[in-house]
Amino acid sequence: MTRIGWPCLALFPVLLLATCGGDAGTSPEATFAAAQKATAEQRWGDLYDLLDIEMVDRKKMEMEPLRSADEQIRKELCADLGITPDEAKSLSVREYFILVTKLQAEARPETLANLANASVVGVKRDGERATLTYKTGEGREETMVFARRENRWLIARW
């Protein structure tokens, strides 16, 4: 690697944190705030980057019918998502999450707006897990579960 390459490589984590909301991952509250920001700005890829492997695995399971259902069901599911069956075959979990979240935001903007306008009520930590309770813009209390992985708090359940 050239001399210029090493300093650029050293800056990568700083740039990554800057794009994800600075403190994202340092605490459940910081990850929640980053999720709110990503939602408000409709940056679904940034929101995906805050997901724990538990959540990613759930999204992977949601995708199974796109690949394994009979042909007619697969065509209907793909039509609902606005993609072809061929596109579904190569769709990554990240791409699926972005596509589905974008469609949900378009169909029910108030649902995601509730997260963007929510306020934290409290956080209960239990080792490497935490449950954050928040009040939505409509005044309902909901929870989000976080898991701590490699010193980062990520969304495990929502």
Largest sheet: 4 strands, antiparallel
Task: Please tell me what the overall shape is.
Answer: globular
- Helix fraction, binned, reads 55-70%
Mean pLDDT: 85
Secondary structure category: alpha+beta
How large is the radius of gyration?
18 Å
Q: What's the CATH first level? A: Alpha Beta
The H/E string reads HHHHHHHHEEEE
Biggest sheet, strands in spatial order? Answer: 1-2-3-4
What's the tally of helices?
Answer: 8
Instruction: Classify the beta-strand content into a percent band.
Output: 15-25%
The CATH architecture can be named as: Roll
Tally the structural domains: 1
Assembly state (oligomeric) = single chain
Instruction: Find the count of extended strands (DSSP E, 2+ residues).
Output: 4
Distance between the termini: 42 Å
Instruction: Report the CATH topology name.
Output: Nuclear Transport Factor 2, Chain: A
Regions with little confidence, pLDDT below 50 for 5+ residues: 1-21
